[in-house]
Amino acid sequence: MRTEFLKACKxxxxxYTPIWIMRQAGRYLPEYHTxxxxxxxxxxxxxPERAAEVTLxxxxxxGVDAAILFSDILVPLEKMGCPLEFHEKxxxxxxxxxxxQAAVDALRIPDAEGDLGYVMDTIRILRKELxxxxxxxxxxxxxxxxxxxxxxxGSSKNYLLTKRxxxxxxxxxxxxxxxxxxxxxxxxxxxxxxxxxxxxxxxxWVGVLAPCxxxxxxxxxxxRIIDALKAVTDIPLIYFANHGATLLPQTKHCxxxxxxxxxxxxxxxxxxxxGQTVSIQGNLEPLCLxxxxxxxxxxxxxxxxxxxxxxxHIFNLGHGIVPEADPAKAKLLVKxxxxxxREMRG
Amino acid sequence: MRTEFLKACKxxxxxYTPIWIMRQAGRYLPEYHTxxxxxxxxxxxxxPERAAEVTLxxxxxxGVDAAILFSDILVPLEKMGCPLEFHEKxxxxxxxxxxxQAAVDALRIPDAEGDLGYVMDTIRILRKELxxxxxxxxxxxxxxxxxxxxxxxGSSKNYLLTKRxxxxxxxxxxxxxxxxxxxxxxxxxxxxxxxxxxxxxxxxWVGVLAPCxxxxxxxxxxxRIIDALKAVTDIPLIYFANHGATLLPQTKHCxxxxxxxxxxxxxxxxxxxxGQTVSIQGNLEPLCLxxxxxxxxxxxxxxxxxxxxxxxHIFNLGHGIVPEADPAKAKLLVKxxxxxxREMRG
Lengths: 346, 346
Prior knowledge:
TIM Barrel; seven-stranded parallel β-sheet; 9 strands; homodimer; two-stranded antiparallel ribbon; alpha/beta
């Protein structure tokens, strides 16, 4: 198995900089569409064979150094008792949003195997398929990000309802976050047992919080998840606080092995702030895949140079690859990262 | 006239911290709806008497220390030759987006008085009405933000088309930005002649750029506008780079008298970075208006404390006030800022 990814997570020396791509198993790949066309998005998440199949596609086609479980951060919430729908245009929808004491009280903590066995089955299939290939990353959403979907009933523009609950009814907000946190801990522990070799916690929307609100309303729950996992496993944990540059003075203490970054902060700035305490992941602007080859190479080199002083660096895009991206460019990106990082090591 | 706002912009001593609120003339005010109901949003922008009337409302009702011209950043683009529509749900729409050489070539530079006389008339009415009240702020969008609307044809989720033009056809992108910049310079100079007593440049979407792309594709145009204005006027210039914390190492050199900040960076962090070189504006999380009174007061005090070392501080929300806000809370906010800042001055 190629282990550069796992080594970089732990700050061990690597021959080249490993790369994986957020949403690497996704709509930019024609091969994905072929599998996806057999049913709905949720059908695909819940079908272990097919979910495993699309998980493997970018490993074989693009050549990334890690596979990440094909799933969605919202699937455990469905098993908390919240019906979940995916609409072609609006995206995820929770038709029964969680906004009252009664609704929070009614939420249950799902059992990883009993309720989310399809995810665990996918992981088990993948571990077999990935022998002699690359490590498998499991994942979850972070509590704040998950809470926004439950409270807003789907995606949001300004997170009005979430922040109103935080500000107007912090006790209720806290109870909801506690339940989501407990759910996430159980879910991620289940993934570890099933065979995940690293875990990423996606905090996709946390960048909408003021630093003081992050401290009070989001960070403690992330910390609790990381502490709970660290007590049972030493696989690498990655925390990705999207658009979270100003949260870094806090996130750097979260206990994760790796912090992920979007493209809106230079990794040199990150390294200055975190020193040798954690490895870092990121952070090419996703739309750089539309640059001509020479400029893409220059940009890859820039990111690698910026990350040079890091304890460990896993290359990634700063957010998910867009459906409009050309798979050939994604493949080229992997090649460039490998070549330039080897060259930089002399 | 109450001059605390102008003094703070220039770093002069003030008896209290002045405050105005982004979108203070807006949908949270029932009085606004009364005027707005007489026609479309664009009708209101183009009717100097009515635009002046809604501009004055928050001065009289909420008690803010500055008025800001009621208009929209997109109106000058219409006069560049781009038909503009406002849809109730989608917001602004340019049905003929600018994506080709021919489209860029066809853009003209509007004349402030000849093409946008209704804005200049509004300013002239307001200056008369505001005698003995508060100063009047004029404004424009910043070139990158304006370009996103023209290229995308309206609002956008990931600015795919804008960034593709930047990356795939930088020469065309540069020509478009040059024209928008020339338009903006003429437009703002016109506002100065008409009587604006300060100007804010809104860069609402610039926070989606990587620092190196901001350097290459956005900042030079902002700098050119500020330089052009500084050559003809000494009224305060405010540059608001929304969600731009990581751009601060660059924006602090832009030459504006004031830098505006959203709520995702602490003003203490800002002061550390800018020192005494500029005044700062911001940055209460807009949804803090939903906090109970005692917690709102504590949060106001926090922002004031964080800004304490600044050359000058103008209090504001970190972004526009939301339509759901209670006008009574906005009024309370103004009172709290005045009282607490007076108290802090001993």
